[in-house]
Amino acid sequence: MVIALLIIWSGVVLFWYWYNRRHLVKLGSQIPGPVAYPLIGNGLTFWGKPEEVFKKLREIFTMYSRLVAIWLGPKLHVALFDANDVEVVLKSKAVEKAEEYKFLKPWLGDSLLISTGSKFKRNKKLIMPSFHVNNLKRFLDVFNDHALVLVESLREKVGEGEFDIQSYLSTCTINVLLETVMGINKETLGDQATKYSHYVHKLSGLAHMRVYKFWLRPDIIFRFSKVRREQDKYIEIIHGLTEKVIQERKKRWYESKLRDDEGEEKWTVFMDSLLGAKDENGVGLTDEDIKAEVMTMMFAGQDTTTTTLGFTLSLLGIYQDIQDKVLKELDEVFGSSNRPITYDDILKLQYLEQVVQETLRLYPPIPLIAKKPVADIQLDTCAIPAGCTVGIMIMGIQRDPKQFPNPMRFNPDNFLPENIKARNPYSYMPFSAGSRMCVGSKYATILIKVILAMILRSYRVSATRRERQFKLAGQVVLKRCEGYLKARMTLSDAEDVILFTTLHVFGFLFVPFVILWFIYWRRSQRNLIVLAEKLPGPKGWPIIGNALDFIGTSPDIFTNVYKHTYDYDRIIRLWIGPKLMVFLLDPRDAEIILSSHVHIDKSAEYKFFKPWLGNGLLVSTGQTWRSHRKLIAPTFHLNVLKGFIDLFNVNSKATVEKMKLEEGKIFDCHDYMSEATVEMLLETAMGVSKTTQDQSGFEYAMAVMKMCDILHLRHTKLWLRPDWLFNLTKYGKIQKHLLHIIHGLTKKVVKNKKEYFNQGMRGTAAVVPREMQSNQHGTHKTSVEGISFGQSIGLKDDLDVDDNDVGEKKRMAFLDLMIEASQNGANITDEEIKEQVDTIMFEGHDTTAAGSSFFLSLMAAHPEVQDKVIKEMDDIFGSSERSATFADTLEMKYLERCILETLRMYPPVPVIARQLKRNVPLANGDYTLPNGCTVIVCTYKIHRLPHIYTNPDKFDPDNFLPERTSNRHYYAFIPFSAGPRSCVGRKYAMLKLKVLLSTIMRNFRIKSDLKEKDFQLQGDIILKRAEGFKIRLESRKPLSEN
C-alpha cells in the first residue's frame, strides 16, 4: 500500500512538473541542437576537465550558425552567436540576470554583478561617478609605479628563454587593485595579498563547477557537498579581510572629513567614493553594499585584466610584425625617454589600443554572459521560451565572419574607425553591452595600456607556441591552461644600441693593435696567402676581405654568396677577415675532399656546435669518430628500418589529423613536419614513447630552429665568434636556455631508455594500435638502397652491406645498441651516448622536416607533378585507408623521384665544410687548396650545374629516371653528403619521408598562391624558406568517389 502511494505521488509530481514546463519544452524542441538524453540531457558534454569541456562546447557551437539548444539535466540553455539576435535579447525588457549568478551570491552579495531591479539601478547610479575619466586620472601614478615594479621584476628573465608571465601579471594587477580600490599596499598585507588572489581564483573555479555540474545546482545537495565546505572556507577568509579593511578605511575617511574645513568632498581610492556616495534622499550605501562592490571589483578587475594582458603579450610574441608597429608607436610617443605615462600619452597610443581591442575580440575575458527571459522572446527564426537560460556567446559572436572578415586572424585593423562603423554594435562587447555594461571598462583599458606600454618600452617578447596550440578553458574567466605567455624576453633596441656604442668605442681604441696583428698575420700565413691569390674570386677589402657579403638578413647573405657562383664556374675564393674560405662547385673537386679518409676534419666553424652536440658524429674526428661511426652504422641497416614502418604510419596519420584542422587556411606546414619528425625519431631510433616526455616534439623543434639561428649568426658575424664575447651578449644567454630545453629532452630520453633496458625491455616502448599493426618482414630489396652513393659503380660504404653481414645482436635500434654496447664494455661513455642522441635528434629531424616542407611547397607549385603523385597513390592504395607497408614503399617510384628531385633543388644541408691540414691539388691540377683554409662543397650549386642537369632550375622528377642517373657523376647528387662522412641515417630518412608524404598525399591536395620563383631562401645551417612554408590544404575524395 505504501509503495503504491509513493508511485502515485511520484506520478503526480512528475505530471505537475511536466505540465508546468510543457511550453518551455515545446519551444525548446524547435531550437536546433544536439540530441539530448532522458533526465541528463546533454550533461555528458560537461564531464571532464575545464579545457576538455570548453573544447567540446566549441565543437558543438561550430555546427550551428546562429543559436543552439543545450539541456543540462532538465535545464534548457540557449546559446546565441548572432549579433542581431543578441541585440534583440539585450534590448528586451523581458530579461534579467540568469539564475546561475546566484551561485556567486554567498561570495559577492548583492553587488552590481548580481543585483536586479531598483537596487541595481540605485547602486549603479551611486557608483558610476567613481569611474569618470577625471577620477581615473588620479590613479595614473599608482599604475605607473606598479608597472615599473613589474618591468624590473621581469629583468631577471631577460635572455633566460621561455617562461610563464602569469604570476608576474597577476601580482601586478592585484597590487594595483588593492591600492586603488581599498587604499592598502602589499607591504600592509604581506603575503595576504598573494593569498587573496589565490582565494579569488579558487572561488571562481568552484562557481564554474556548480554551473556545469548540474547535480550540484540544488541547494539541498550542494549544502552537504565537499565543494560547499571548501567555498565557505575561502569566503570566510576573503570576507574577514575585506570587512577589516572597510572598517579601518571608514574610520580614516570620517576623520579626514572632520578635518576638512571647506567641506569639500575628497577621496583617493574607490572605497572612499563608495563611503561618500549619497542618493537624492541623502541615503548612502550600507557596509554590506560596500563590501559586495569592493569584492566584485577585486574579482572582476584582477582576473579579467591579467587574462587580457597575458593574451595580448602572447599574440604580440607570435606576430612580430604587429609588435614592430606597436614599438614604432611607442618610440614616436616616448622617444628614448623613461618618463612616466600620462593620460595624453594614453590617448596617443591608438595602435596599441587597437591591439588590445583585437585581443579582447579573439579572447574575451568573459567568454559568455547569461540572461533569463521572464517572457518569450521572438527572434526571426524561432522563439526563446521564458524560464530558460540564454547564453550570449561573446567569443563566438566576435568571431562571426559576417561581422569580421577572416575572423580567426589577429588583425588590429579590425578596429580602424571605418571598420567599426560597418559592424553591428553588438558584434563586439567584451565588457557586455546595454545597461549592464561593465562600469570598470575604462579603468581596465587604461591600466592595460599603461602596463603593456611599460613592458614594451623595455623589452621585446617572442613566443615559440603558435596560436593553434592555445589550450583554452572557459571557466568564469577565459584562460590558457598551459599559461598565459610562454615566451622569451629580450632587451629593447635602445639597450642594444648602448651595447653597440660601447663596442664601437672599444674597437676604435684597439685600431693600432689590429693593424699590428694584421702585419704579423700576413708574414705567418705566407703559404696560405700565396696559394689563395692564385684562386679565382671577387676582390676583397683590406682587413675585412669579403665580410660585407655576410651582412644583412639570412636571405640577403644567401643571395650575396650565391650570386658569385654565376661569375665563377669551378671555384670561388672568399675572405672573411683573416679566414680563407674556398667554395667548390665541381663534383670532381668535391670527390677529392669528400671521398678522402684524410680530409675528414670538419671546419673550425663546427666548434660552435660543441656546447650542443659535444663530440657527436657531426663534430668529432679521428679515432673517436671512426669507432662511434662503426658502432652506430648497423643501427640504420634496412632490416632495422623495416621494423619502424608501423610507427611511421601511426605518427603520419596523427600528423594528418592535426593538419585537418588547418584545411582551407593558409598555414606554415614546417611546424607540423618538425613535430612529426621529432616524434618519429623518439619512437623509432630512440625507442621511447613520445607521450612519456615532459615536452612536446614541437617545443623541441622550435628550440632547435632557434639554436640554428644563433649558430648561423656566429658563422656570419665575426664579433660573435670568440666565446668570451659571445657569452657576454644576449645570444649567449638565449643559447643557454635553448640548450636547457634541448638537453632536457635528450637526457630524459636516455634516462627512460636505460630504465626500460634494466627492466629487460628491448625495442620501442611506443604502442602501435592493434588495427595498425602489420607483418613487415620480407626479403625485398628497396630502391632506398639504390641511393647509397657509389653503389651503382661498385663502391660500398658502411650502410651498403648484405643482410648476412649484420649479426643478429647488431640488428637493434640506435639507442638500444648504444646502451647495450656501453654495458658490455664498449668504448663509449654515458656522456658520449647523450652526445650521439643529441646529434641524431638534430640531424634526423631538422633535415627531413625541411625536405618534406619543400616537397609539399613544390607539389603546390607544380600541380601537374602532384597529379602524377596522386595517381600513383591511387594505383597503390585505391580507395583503401589501410596503412602503408614496406612493400608499398617499393612501388612508390614516382614519389621517390619527386623526393630526390626536391633534395636536388633544395638540399637540406646546402654546404659541407672541411678544414684542410695540407695542400690539396684539385682535379685538373691547375689549382691547389692551401693548408689551413676552410673548403666548402657547395651542394646547392653542384645540384644545379647545367652541364649535368638539363634545365637545372626546373623541377623535373624525371632527372632521376635510371637512364639519366646511370652516367651521372655520383658526386653530382650529394644531399646526404658522400664518402666516409656521409649521413648515417640517409636510408632511415628516405623511408620516413616516403611513409609521411604518401600519407599526406593520400588525404590532401596541396595548394598555394606562391610560385617557386617566390621562394626566399636562407641557409641557416639547414636550408629553409625565409617566409615560411605557406600552403593550403584541400581534402581529397577517395578514389571510389572520383
Automatic annotation (TrEMBL):
Membrane topology: Peripheral membrane protein
Membrane-spanning residues: 443-459, 497-521
Subcellular location: Endoplasmic reticulum membrane; Microsome membrane
Task performed by this protein: May be involved in the metabolism of insect hormones and in the breakdown of synthetic insecticides.
UniProt source species: Photinus pyralis (Common eastern firefly)
Pfam families: p450 (PF00067)
Binding site for heme: 983
GO molecular function: heme binding; iron ion binding; monooxygenase activity; oxidoreductase activity, acting on paired donors, with incorporation or reduction of molecular oxygen
Protein name (database record): Cytochrome P450
Cofactor(s) listed: heme
